[in-house]
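Need tokens for this chain, all 209 residues.
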Amino acid sequence: MVAMQPQRRFSDAAREDYLVEVIRCPEDLDRWHLVNDYLKLRKQVFVDRLDWPLFHAEDLEFEQYDSFNTVYVVASLNGEVVGGARLRRTDQISGTGHVQYSYMIRDACLGVLPGLPQTLCNSVPPMDERIWEITRMVVTGSRDVSKMILVKINTFLGREGADTVLFLGSPAFLRMANSLRWPVKQLGPVSTNSEGSFQVFECPVRDLG
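Here are the structure tokens for all 209 residues:
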């Protein structure tokens, strides 16, 4: 899901020295401290501020979908992490125990995640190497940092050969996608739990070249 705390206008954000990076293991271990700071930011926003009942250890919020095959997109301002998102290719499996996990949206629809409703999507989404998922998007800087992150994600997924990305977030995401001229398809109804309202969207990966 996504949480945003807008503070500056785009004209202000554009003048700042923002850096948005794609970080994955093992290629980018020298930048892994940024992922660690992103997990801290998730805990600060989702647990401390929004009071979501999420697992956390000390000052980090993480879960089973934060695994070795997860890709992170992290935004920083002068070295301080101000936003980020988590990407997973939907054909990947993690976990070796009784329950194995694919990706959050699908697992919720299959009833694997008791904290999320099975009615997120009108039908169970597929596992496909050309479909990715965005979750745990959080931004504490300008609203336009969210747009910078989404543009970076789109560029990365295009290079990875992806066709489509699924996004679990606030219904307000639809307005942001429209502002980017990014066509969005709603895959299910607006759902509500103790964490707020959220919905699943499907977006094509656009050719920005």
